[in-house]
Amino acid sequence: MARKSIMSDRLKVEIAKELGFYDTVEREGWGGIKARDAGNMVKKAIEMAERQQAMQDSQK
Predict the structure, then answer these.
(1) Which range, of 2-6, 9-13, 16-20, 33-37, averages the lowest pLDDT?
(2) Tell me, what DSSP letter sits at residue 20?
(3) Residue 44 · residue 15 · CB < 8 Å
(4) What's the rounded Cα separation, in Å, for the pair 40 and 55?
(5) Structure letter (DSSP) for residue 4
(6) Where residue 2 falls among pLDDT bands split at 50, 70, 90?
(7) Which of 1, 12, 27, 47 has a 20 to 30 Å separation from 58 between CA atoms?
């Protein structure tokens, strides 16, 4: 059963490149990354979303 991704492909690629494991994604696909890398990717996405929300809140 395929899972629906919440993050856009563009965001996932951006984060994977930033965290340094995009080469694995290119070779093996998303299923080839380590659980730790996936966790770090989610953590980074949450941090980005929180930062964006804080910026929006400060502009109100």
Answers:
(1) 2-6
(2) T
(3) yes
(4) 23
(5) P
(6) low
(7) 12
Q: What is the pLDDT of residue 60?
A: 75
Per the structure block, which two tokens stand in for 27? 């070779």
CA 37/CA 14 separation, integer angstroms: 13
Question: pLDDT (tens digit, 9 = 90+) per residue, 32-41?
Answer: 999 999 999 9
Residue 33 is encoded by which pair of tokens? Answer: 């990354």
- Find how far residue 20's CA is from the centre of its chain: 12
52: three-class secondary structure by DSSP: helix
pLDDT averaged over every residue in the chain: 92
